[in-house]
Fold each of these.
Amino acid sequence: MKHMEYNASQSSFYATTLGDAPGAFSESCFGFQKSELFELIWVKKGQGAFTVDLEKSLVSDNSLFCLFPGQISRLVAGPELVGYKIAFSREFLCAGSGLAYLPPALDYAGRAGQFEVLRLNMEMQTEVETIIEMIVWEYNNRQRLWAQMLHGLLKVLIAFFPSSFNADTPGQQFRTDYLVFNRFMNLLDGKFALQRQVAAYASDLAVSSNYLSEIIKRVSGYSASHHIQQRVLLEAKRKAVSTSKSMKEIALELGFDDPSTFSKFFKTMTQVNFSDFRNRWFNDPGSRLPVYRKKARLS
């Protein structure tokens, strides 16, 4: 078997306190940040609000969050915030493990919503804190085999996350459907601005359009075309609040040759026009607060 190298470079893995996270103090259009990595965020102590892809969740002590690559987020918290961030790429998690795909908690069929949230009880808090502190120490001290150590500790930490996907569900058909669904969603992430037809994705996956549509509906409850439309809309919303680009620029980036067509699409899907949508977030009090108001510390 070919030897797989662990890569724990800054671009594929980092572990830090929240205030020290790369880009923690950078401001986007409305204070949102976008990560190209998976992010596990544990708020050990503190209160506030965490917004991910425009979905808000209250922050409280011992909250564990999971963000996915491409999601935009904004954390508005008080000065006593204490927490950690661990970010990693798909390649880092899967390297050397023989994993051909991500664990259920980090893949599409396992997502319970826009982002996972786990409230830790006292027993779980002690275990999670021990694991996270070990990860931060290994990352900062770079001892022998440190990348392998980080990889193992990361897998243990991920095991704490719940998943709506039951890996023990019997039946080869379900497992096959699950894999096809995830392959479709991964393709969609990379091609939504270029491909809008279900037939094009079916061709990429070497299956018929009807077969793909049936699988997507069985796994998710929604049609393949619905997922395509929602993915385009999600990216439009992300760009609206995380960049200062004009509607015309965003429309072109999303594959719309005519900005008016994009404007109609956006209003039909959201029941509000693009400018009003952007202004609503601009007028949100949280948009004018820094992402992290005070540097968090290990304690």
Amino acid sequence: MKKSKRILWSIFLLAIPMLFMVSGCKKFLDRKPLTATLDDIKQGGIEGLVFGIYSAVKDYDIGQVFGGIPWQGMHNFRSDDSQKGSEPSDGAEWVAPFDNYQYVKDLWASNFYWDAHYSLIHLTNTALQTADSLQLTGVESEVNIAEARFFRAFAYFDMVRTYGDVPKIDFRIYNAAQANIAKSPSAAIYALIDADLQYAVTHLPLVWGSQYPGRLTSGAARSLWAKSYLFRGNFAAALPLLQQVINSGQYSLFSSYFGIFKDAGENCPESILEWQNYMGPNRTDDHGSWYATCQGVRAPNATGWNLGWGWNTPTDAFVNSFDAGDPRLPSTVLFSGQSDDPATGGYGGTLPPYPSVLPQPYWNKKVYADPAMRQSTGWLDGAYWINQRVIRYADVLLMTAECLNETGAGAQGVDLVNQVRARVGLPDITYTDQVLLRAAIKKERRAELGLEGERFYDLVRWGDAVTVLGPLGYQHRCRFYPIPQPAIDRSNGILVQNPEW
């Protein structure tokens, strides 16, 4: 069933020549420019280049940075909801920088995070320069340009909220020296994000239809743009974008919370942005990613529970943060030694105990693989086919409620929070004042979006990070990660370290 939904899109995405891909083993500044002949490009405008960007953002190379372990480190481990996980000896060097905020300036994960983002930016700039040089016009070309500009904005939003000021490379690179430029102020990066997403909102379609599941839409562009405004505290600018997404009629909350994260819930009406993965029977037609596999339950093979690498495991603080009876807890967390609970998305199994067999007490249930799919694909110790949910409609509802509350219309915003709560059978909350609704929204975002990469950046933008994460070692300067030392060394003094590091 999944293959019939996705086969055409998969063929387009994965048939892109490796010419357009980049290797995660190479540094961005050391790579030769990616090229193609104009005769090749003219056959399909820049569609091939753009489809290559889709593939790169979730593949086994660059895609590590948009869902694999480096992404998990930056986006999840740094929150109070999850930690490195796995066995203590597995990736022990990740604990200090990502769990304890002892940031390291030369670490494979953070180095790769920086380099791969600029590799993706390079792919987008190449597509945009090619379109400009060919003077491409017409709706199809405008859509392709909009897709490339969306991905550039997506990459730069990660960079600016992770590092602050970064080099603004909005042009095609033909040799390494051209990329060796100084940092631009974060305001300039946000201006580029705004311009790119304005174009994307204008030129991306509202909907694609079933032949292109996961392809970018104007709703995805508006949602990302609004998220960037929230990070800047500009609620007035974010609000109309979010309201347009809601009023478009294209999205709705999925009836089952845990069902969103199952195979049948992929590309459901709640999905606004979702990276597409696929693996056929017996390991054929492998178009997957490391996203779910890197988080699967880690156990000895003999137990039958070796489902992945065991990273990004929930913390006691996260488990204890849920209200009693909130079904999102057992839908989000697998408990070692307990039933996987079919009523909240399990398959009728009981996990081995902790610590005698499993190295962690809790696991991320949102990436829990269906045993039937593991048997079908032949990948018993991974879940490479599971899509990564990037932006959900529930996130949009909660962002809209926050914007309404912060602009003096909290009485309207509380209804959106209650929509999210009603989906999981929780009682309505009532609007009393802005302060109480603000606290309720923060709590709701934590429960609803747990382990999905939102919590750390939410705490930073709310100004709560020092209070909440301080006991774990966080300081105000930890809102930005230091620029990787190898990148600085390669620049010969042009790129300078963040002033607080």
Amino acid sequence: MDKNSTVYRSYSELLKKELIPAMGCTEPVSIAFAAAKAREVLGNIPDKVKVDVSGNILKNVKSVVVPHTGGMRGIPAAVAAGIVAGKPQLELEVISGTSEEEIREIAHYLNSTPITVHFADTPHIFDIMITLSYKDESSFVRITEHHTNIVCIRKNNNTLFEKEISPAEDDLTCRNVLNVQDIVDFADSVNTEDVADIITRQAEYNMAIAEEGLRGDYGANIGRTLLSRNKDDVSEKMRAFAAAASDARMNGCEMPVIINSGSGNQGITASVPVIVYAREKGHTEEELIRALCISNLITIHLKSGIGRLSAYCGVVSAACGAACGVAYLSGGRYDTIAHTLVNALAMDSGIICDGAKASCAAKIASAVDAGLLGLEMYKNGNEFYSGEGLVAKGVENTIRNIGLLARNGMAETDKEIIRIMLESN
């Protein structure tokens, strides 16, 4: 691939834009970011807080531990953390520097301040609106479409900043340049110096939290459970390390991860299995970088047709990406990667997203297993064929079908999941 081509430059920029650090689950952290920004605009610690959020934000924040809060969960905890200790200039690491004293202040603020949360009537899947009040003054911040996309800032009745809300703001929907053939060509030809800093940071951060997940006692300990079954099997280790990273992240671990397509669990799933495999099999750092280009770009490609939030579990896409990265390390190129991807999508595309929580680690383990099975199927001369369910002729057509299923077909499923979760409170 020509290094001066539009495709090469686009793929390099996508990796730089999507593989960024985040502290904790990205939806509560986005709420904390909005709250911190609104507090900055208000100029005081508010005595009243109103939060309006879309259903998918409710779903993804309800059950997950907010880091640096002493184990608190949910939207009010995220808001309180952002107000008391947030540094808005850090964006998705907004509460990363919280002190022990501030954690106590967060708990006190949460218990002494009215924080009301409302299900917003909004057409946007990702929508956060926070209104803070102090005496006769108020501030308002709105984040829409993706985690740091502030579209409106107001103080009292004065609009300080506003921009049009457009799907184009979330360029996951505007990535027609992505396709499997070009992704493989990019991985083969990329000057690794162009992406090394991004990719090696992903490996460092995400493996560190995976190792912490295996050391500690987090959630349901899916990673430790898997590793106890057969610690010498490379496939089990790949699943275990990926699950352990999610165990830690979903249950309050205060270590950052490198996300993919707005999700830490997706960033973990796209990277950790590939890193474990590469290290177990003795691959070079350069080979690992190229394989992680495959896994991350395949994940972004799959998510492009789905959107950032959906009833379709995002780790399925990331696990497919990881399997393609392993296929690449195994010597496979376009044909192997395309068939691995189709096989994996045919198996695990029914996993639903019912919010961020401890069981995400188990879904990661299941999705990684399906991805690896898809690769082994192709190596043994087996595959799913066009016309079998959602499988179509050609990998890009199958990807398109999965996108339609997740974005359109599962829209009502998403509403039902949210309704059930709201009624279960």
